[in-house]
Known about the structure:
Radius of gyration of chain B: 20 Å
Distance between the termini of chain B: 30 Å
Strand content of chain A: 25-35%
CATH topology of chain B: ABC transporter involved in vitamin B12 uptake, BtuC
Order of helices and strands of chain B: HHHHHHHHHHHHHH
Mean pLDDT of chain A: 82
Number of helices of chain A: 13
Number of domains of chain B: 1
Distance between the termini of chain A: 46 Å
Shape of chain B: globular
CATH class of chain B: Mainly Alpha
Number of strands of chain A: 17
Order of helices and strands of chain A: EEEHEEHEHHHEHEHEEHHEEEHEHHEEEH
Oligomer: heterodimer
Strand order of the largest sheet of chain A: 6-7-8-3-9-10
Helix content of chain A: 25-40%
Largest interface: A-B, 33 and 26 residues
Amino acid sequence: MPLGNLHDTPAPGTIPRLRAEGLAVGYRAARGGTGGGEERRVLSGLDLELRPGELVCILGPNGAGKSTLLRTLAGLQTPLAGRILVDGEDFAGLTAEGRARKTAIVLTERMEAGNLSVHSLTALGRHPHTGWTGRMRESDKDAVRAGLEAAGAWELRARLFDELSDGEKQRVMLARALAQEPALLLLDEPTAFLDLPRRVETIRILRNLARARGRAVLLSTHDLDLAMRAADRLWLMPPGGPVRCGTPEDLALAGAIASVFDQGDVAFDKANGQFRIHGHPDKWAVLSGDPVLVHWTARALEREGYGIVDESEGKSRSGEARAAIRIAAEAGAGGSVWRCFATATGTALGSFTSLEQLAGRLRG
Amino acid sequence: MSASGRTWFWLAALAVMLAGLFCLGLASGSVTIPVGQAVASLLGHPAANPVWDRILWQIRLPRCLTAVLAGSALALSGLEMQTLFRNPLAGPYSMGISSGATLGVALAVFTGALAGAGLRDIPGVPALGGMGAQLGVAGSAVAGAALVMLLVLAVARRVQSNSTLLILGLMFGQLTGALVSVLQAFSGAEQIRAFTFWGFGSYAGVTWAQLPVLTCAVLAGVAMAAACAKPLNALLLGWTYARSLGVPIQALRGLLLASTSLLAGAVTAFCGPVAFLGLAVPHLCRGLFRTADHRVLIPACLLLGASMSLASDLASRLPGGDRTLPLNAVTALVGAPVVIWVLLRRRAARDE
């Protein structure tokens, strides 16, 4: 079932946080004063929507245009065509400061910030909300505090930004974006430099923000697993193809995720929602026994260049004929045991108490 | 002490120091005038010795005022450039802006039409006091400064590396220096002499007739910088984030270009290329006030820049009495260690 651009119908009465109509993004090579430069469209014909309280992940291979789209939505690049509406207001009619009150962005680039303390850096998020002197009212100070607390950076506030670790810096940049109190929060690979607990934590913060404050959060990531679990919806960007929108589960079942990411030796396994790295197996194995052991044994064998034949399939004549080895895995009180046989002759190749031993035997 | 308490304390301390150095600047020189007498004379009570009055009003006061204006202007332009280029070693001198101004002055002087205007009164060169001539020299210095600023800005968009940018600034300096030499080859001996003295840097040559021009240029530059204080803070995050915070980038770039060119160009026109003040003072202010907030750093740089400038001028005429050191030698003695400290500290921070 092909999924095109899904035109979601918003719930009546709610204005979408973001609406893009016929949007084209890319670069315009400035040549001379009056336009006329060459356009390089990265994505075009985009009709997208983000509702209040929604967290959406953009997924796609490198070069699909994720960053370009985010930068355009943040007002850092002008769209080549189409309109962007945030809270129903046309971006083209807003000043740079007006746009900055609506959207905040966290970029992926690492940065240095001179002599700025964490607190002053976060306070810069109030820039579009303060007058020309930059004086902070009580509401501004509250927003800075709330941003720091929500991002888990409150205890860092007195430190110098440049002295922080990558993960801490990322949290502070998030705090700054939160202090900006945007209707739409854009993040370009916010989890790139974080370890797993911090990644989960960051997504949790963003989810809370979206849910509790009715903001819309849009982030790009390479972390498919996290995106599949955390996002309300995904925007899938196949290189060159149309953007596909939908809940992660619908997209997975429709084969859309596989179609975006399957290339070379990587394949998306619809059954367990994970990627498989497969070589081009010329040897086959039949597995049987404890299901957990079978799962991990299959992974170890795939790494050794074996293709796995289903047990049921293995019993069929063709499977038996192809499969070079049969492995029976048994979980016991004294530990797991793998028994390995050559299918052609039926001779036992040995029994092993770890997959390391088994792999060593198969290797030679 | 709270952060703002600390800020006000140091601003007050710098103001007091500036006032003290100003009085000292009035009092000391080849003829020593008691500080009390000097201040009284300024307040309208004739001094005990009528010669003192004349020295004060004709020589010392314009010289001290010039030192204050020049120091403030150079420090402020240094601060603006360091943030604009995100480069701790940026400054009007190190980036070649002063050299651009020098070229402007040289063009004005050696083309003859404006000979001697804006240069200090040295024997053999008649100082033309005409307002038009002064504006001509100041204007061409500012234009020269702006030209180099434009070049450096254009290059900075393509070059990310801080050190490459500095070397380019140095090359612009060499280039303008070469052009000045070419101009000199076609000029008269007196013009060359006047230009050479001017090149050492001095606050002594600025007359009452010239002060209004310098004052207006510096005030305009300071006003523009003050208007940029808030967006300059946002610029600490880099151009992309500044834009995402709603900073009108083109307008800011233009204002900073105008401000730094006016400040550095006008000072160079009247006092010669003064090194190191613009580079060193912003770092001292950041260290002293422990902040990166331009709303604090701008007044801090104005006060400390003026103080350092007065102190350098004082030091240049202290030894012996009638002998004076070149101003640039003194500013380098103070400024170069600051630059070395900045370099070493950054190195240490990276190695950790």
